[in-house]
Amino acid sequence: MKRHTVKLLLLAVVAALSGCHQNPSHPENDGSIKEVVWPSPKRAKLGTGLGVFPTPESISLLNNGMTKDQVYILIGSPHFDEGLFRVREWDYLLHFRTSGYGTHGVTTCQLKIIYNSDLLV
């Protein structure tokens, strides 16, 4: 009986962790993707899906070859539940003040950062 319980517990842990590795756009090893899959803005994990107002300078500093830590320092953690292990895409909900454009002078954009198999942008 004890052995059976351990096997069931192990199976439950494996099943739970399988949801911790999500890459909906299915990046190739080189970081390329065939089809971009965008999450619904309503799923942003910032409480109400409000997103953030980054500085244009921080966005302009994003570049190929950056590590996850470097991206995190520039624009913070991803705004959607991406998973826990070997996640190779981060999604952000960004707002920019655009006087005279957008809703109430604010334009909303989504940004997707794709990492290659070495976990570099």
Automatic annotation (TrEMBL):
- Domain (Outer membrane protein assembly factor BamE) ranges: 51-121
Under Gene3D superfamilies, the record lists: 3.30.1450.10
Origin species, per record, is Salmonella enterica
- Output the Gene Ontology cellular-component terms: outer membrane
Query: Could you confirm whether the keyword Heme appears in this record?
Result: no
UniProt keywords (A-Z) are: Membrane, Signal
UniProt entry tagged with the keyword Secreted: no
* Name of this chain's protein: Outer membrane protein assembly factor BamE
Q: Please name the Pfam families in this protein's record.
A: BamE
